[in-house]
Specification:
This protein has 302 residues and is mainly α. The chain has helices at 3-24, 31-51, 56-62, 67-93, 97-104, 116-133, 139-148, 153-178, 182-195, 203-220, 224-234, 241-249, 252-258, 269-279, 292-295; strands at 280-285, 296-300. It folds into two domains: 3-27 and 201-300, no CATH class; 31-195.
Length: 302
């Protein structure tokens, strides 16, 4: 091979590596998954107050290093547990949400171990949120209030403990009014959160990254499709049943060999589908990670 050919191939390989790097570096935070996890954690904290209060400080302390997670858990406590229970309680009693909350939290300040400043701040947030529901405040005021209460570490932990105790008080009052066991209720509302995975990722970003990976492999491994075609011709069982029929309909090994000298971007949709069925064993999405490359795990069949 001449120097010009080697240089051209090196440039082509570098170009595809850049394409993979760019496609893989697209931000892909799993916000939905973080919200699901925060709801699960909030439920665990309230369950701890009800069944094993000694475990709550440890659960709260685990949130300390991550302020954004603290915010999500605080919002889950506020919107999904406290206000939802207060709404049901208010409906059952025929009173306002604010009145239901005041009744449910009336005895929380009793006891020497109560962090009164933290409880007052948490109750203030809850009342502001109730006013948002009544159309008396804008939602932004609640977000700002939550954020302000999570700035300083120790104050934030006390605030979260107080929100958890308020959530438990609201749930207990709701259950007493409706006639439902607290543990049964917590178990029931835990199911939707437990069954939700929250692993979604933006479809175009996923497709662009997988396209870049396939394009790079075709450019750097010129005989890849030839070897794959020969292997599948010898052993068609290498493809799962759900893919084998479509593989044959798209031209099978014969068409795959014809595509050996082609480029990914030069293929039509049917040929791309044939190549993808051949090369990709699985593409799994991980809930953790900040970019597309962090969150996607690609397993190759060839």
């Amino acid at each position: 091979m001449g120097k010009a050919s080697r240089r051209k191939r090196t440039q082509r390989r570098d170009g595809h590596q850049d394409r993979v790097r760019i496609a893989g570096s697209v931000p892909a935070p799993n916000f939905e998954g973080a919200v699901v996890e925060a709801t699960r954690y909030a439920l665990a904290m309230v369950t701890s107050v009800h069944a094993s209060p000694e475990d709550l400080p440890g659960l709260i302390e685990d949130l300390a290093p991550d302020r954004s997670r603290q915010g999500l858990v605080a919002y889950a406590l506020l919107s999904e547990l406290i206000l939802e229970s207060a709404r049901e309680l208010a409906d059952a009693r025929g009173v306002t949400v604010a009145a239901a909350l005041n009744d449910a939290t009336e005895g929380l300040g009793a006891g020497e171990s109560v962090n009164q400043p933290a409880l007052d701040r948490a109750l203030g947030t809850v009342r502001k949120h109730a006013e948002v529901l009544d159309g008396m405040r804008s939602p932004e005021t609640v977000v700002a209030d939550l954020d302000a209460n999570l700035v300083q570490r120790q104050a934030a932990l006390g605030y979260l403990i107080s929100l958890t105790r308020i959530a438990h008080a609201a749930i207990a009052a709701r259950c007493a009014e409706i006639g439902e066991d607290v543990v049964s209720y917590l178990r029931r509302i835990s199911l939707p959160a437990a069954e939700t995975h929250g692993n979604e990722i933006e479809a175009d970003a996923l497709e662009d990254y997988v396209d870049a990976l396939i394009a790079e492999r075709l450019a750097t491994e010129p005989l890849l499709l030839t070897h794959a075609a020969e292997a599948l011709r010898r052993d068609s069982a290498a493809l799962p049943d759900e893919d084998a029929g479509e593989f044959r309909e798209l031209g099978g090994s014969d068409r795959l060999e014809e595509l050996t000298d082609g480029t990914w971007d030069g293929m039509d949709a049917a040929d791309k589908r044939l190549v993808a069925i051949t090369l990709l064993k699985s593409v799994l999405v991980d809930p953790e990670g900040g970019t597309v490359a962090d969150r996607l795990s690609v397993a190759w069949r060839f």
